[in-house]
Amino acid sequence: MKKIALLLLLSITFTTHAAGLKPYSGNIKNPQVILQDLSGKTHTLEQYKGSIVLVQFWATYCPPCVKEMPSMNSMQDKLAKAGVPFKILAIDMAETRTEVEEFVKKIKPEFTILLDESGSSIGQWNVFAAPSNFLIDKQGQIKYTLFGGVEWDSPEIIEKITQLSQQ
Amino acid sequence: MGRMLTSLFYLYLQMFIKHTFFIILISIAAITNAKELKTIELPSGEETEVRIFPSKGNILIIGFACDNGKSKHEEATSISLAEDGIEVWMPDMLSTYMLPKSRSSYEEIPGEDLAHIIYEAIATNKDVYIVGSGSDTQLLLKVAAQWKKDYPDYKNLKGAILLFPRLNDGEPEPGVEPKYVSSVGTTTIPLMVLEGGRTPNRWGVNHLSQKLGSSGSQVISKIVPGIRGYFFNRNDPNRTEDVVTSQLSGLVKVSLHYLQELEK
């Protein structure tokens, strides 16, 4: 019995640590995104209400941002196959369109990349480091945050997003 | 034949003079850039060795580089500054206390010892500025606060240059204002903050500057375009980073200029 309890405790600890998602403790009440993607199409957070949205602030010069992109592609696939309404909005932190386009050609992210050449959203979201991640619930509120690189397609994160989509 | 010998003699004499002149020039340059070692006895009883790049100007910079002397470029930068009339002192505080390079080590270095090094530098009658980079800036702020406490009547500590400071206390939390180490907001001396344009930290510069100034310091912050954090220690520098690295002394001089402007 003791062994089972210990294993259970360890698995909970592992899950929490592996996911790295922390309940949001800041005071941004109505987060906004109104930015264009590389094709010039405007995306707002409002239009994705009803879906779980991962808003990520990233930059081409940020090694962990680059490293985790394949796992973001994979996460998006897994959640789509599971029928979870989910969207990634990856906001580049104030680099030029040319810089981002060159990067996208090379790395090939399969999710939505948004440009914020003026950097205005960075201040609005209280972002001071990269990658900074915000997991938004179906009502458009920030539920979890995560700083740093992570394997986004890990079972723990997929599970957490699936759970969030059921709330 | 005699004429030929005389010509040869003059040719050799000319060459000798040229070579001697060249050797003298090199010697003068070597003397100018000579690194001296000064042992300072600290209030804690420890002794620290300070690398000194002497110069005759009236400015002295203390570089608190906590890297056990391993930092790339610091010697070249110091030599370049000394050539331009700025004396540089490089104490290595971690080696003095046999401490590892970690955040917790900064807490273990006695503030009184740090302030005493400034006291020794002030004794030269030069205007003293302190410089540090990355997480070493934590030590810089600590020594600035301690100096004010231990030597309130001395006015020669004119300012601090924080190159690409890393002063967050713990991991940043997205969407939440950053928390800083305790030495932020404890000094009143003028501060110059430089940050790379291609690092996420640039977005925190205004917030950090506000916190640094909360204790009364005047703070100037500038973004250096095109460079990443710790660019001078990277193995894969881009062209801009290469140029800026070779001109680190220029960055320091520009920073000094800004700090001097504040005094006017």
Low-pLDDT stretches of chain A: 6-18
Q: Which fold does the CATH topology of chain A refer to?
A: Glutaredoxin
Order of strands, main sheet of chain A, comes to: 1-8-7-4-5-6-2-3
**Second-tier CATH architecture of chain A:** 3-Layer(aba) Sandwich
User: What pair of chains forms the biggest interface?
Assistant: A-B, 27 and 16 residues
The neighbouring-strand order within the major sheet of chain B is 1-2-4-3-5-6-7-8
Roughly how much helix do the residues of chain A carry, as a percent range?
25-40%
Radius of gyration computed on alpha carbons of chain B: 22 Å
Instruction: Look at the structure and name the CATH superfamily of chain A.
Output: Glutaredoxin
Number of domains of chain A: 1
Estimated share of beta-strand residues of chain B: 15-25%
Instruction: Give the fraction of residues assigned to helices of chain B.
Output: 40-55%
Query: What's the total count of β strands of chain A?
Result: 8
* Contiguous uncertain segments of 5+ residues of chain B: 19-32
Task: Kindly report how far apart the N and C termini of chain B lie.
Answer: 72 Å
Number of helices of chain B: 9
Shape of chain B: globular
What does this structure look like?
The complex is a heterodimer of chains A (167) and B (264). Chain A is an alpha+beta fold. Chain A has a single domain (2-165), classed as Glutaredoxin (3-Layer(aba) Sandwich). Helix content of chain A is 38%, strand content 23%. In chain A, a hairpin with a 4-residue loop joins strand 2 and strand 3. The longest helix of chain A is centred in the middle third of the chain and has 19 residues, at 63-81. Chain A starts with a helix and ends with a helix. Mean pLDDT of chain A is 89; it is low at 6-18. By secondary structure, chain B is an alpha/beta fold. Chain B has one domain (52-263): Alpha/Beta hydrolase fold, catalytic domain (Rossmann fold, 3-Layer(aba) Sandwich). Helix content of chain B is 42%, strand content 19%. Chain B has helices spanning 2-33, 74-83, 93-96, 103-108, 111-122, 137-150, 205-212, 239-246, 248-263, and strands at 36-41, 47-53, 59-63, 86-91, 127-133, 157-163, 191-196, 219-224. Chain B has an eight-stranded mixed sheet, with helices on both faces. In chain B, helix 5 packs across helix 6 (137-150). The interface between A and B is medium-sized, with 27 and 16 residues.
